[in-house]
Design brief:
The protein is an alpha+beta fold. It has a single domain, classed as 3-Layer(aba) Sandwich (Glutaredoxin), CATH 3.40.30.10. The protein is built from three helices and four strands; from the N terminus they run βαβαββα. It has a four-stranded mixed beta sheet. Helix 1 packs across helix 3. The chain is globular. The model has no long low-confidence stretch (mean pLDDT 97). Pfam families: Thioredoxin_3. It comes from Sedimentimonas flavescens. InterPro entries: Thioredoxin-like_fold, Thioredoxin-like_sf, THIRX-like_proc. This is Thioredoxin family protein.
């Protein structure tokens, strides 16, 4: 199971990013645990300077704007 964290204050892009992560994981048949992090101090500690951000198994893979769906699938498959 992959541990996914979606970082953001709760904006529409952040919610869309979380939905994209869940949909990509389902499409690939990958079990994931998705946690939404909205605490600004925790977001900054994770190194996210622009939201939404995504970390997979503790590694920050994306920050700022919606992720590219193809890249997202690649990150989940790695």
């Amino acid at each position: 199971m992959k541990d996914i964290k979606v970082f953001g204050p709760g904006c529409k892009r952040c919610a869309t990013t979380e939905d994209m992560v869940r949909a990509a994981a389902a499409k690939l048949g990958i079990e994931v645990s998705v946690e939404k992090i909205s605490d600004m101090a925790a977001i900054a500690r994770a190194g996210v300077m622009s939201t939404p951000g995504i970390s997979i198994d503790g590694k920050l893979v994306h920050a700022g704007g919606l992720p590219d769906p193809v890249k997202l699938e690649g990150w989940l498959s790695a």
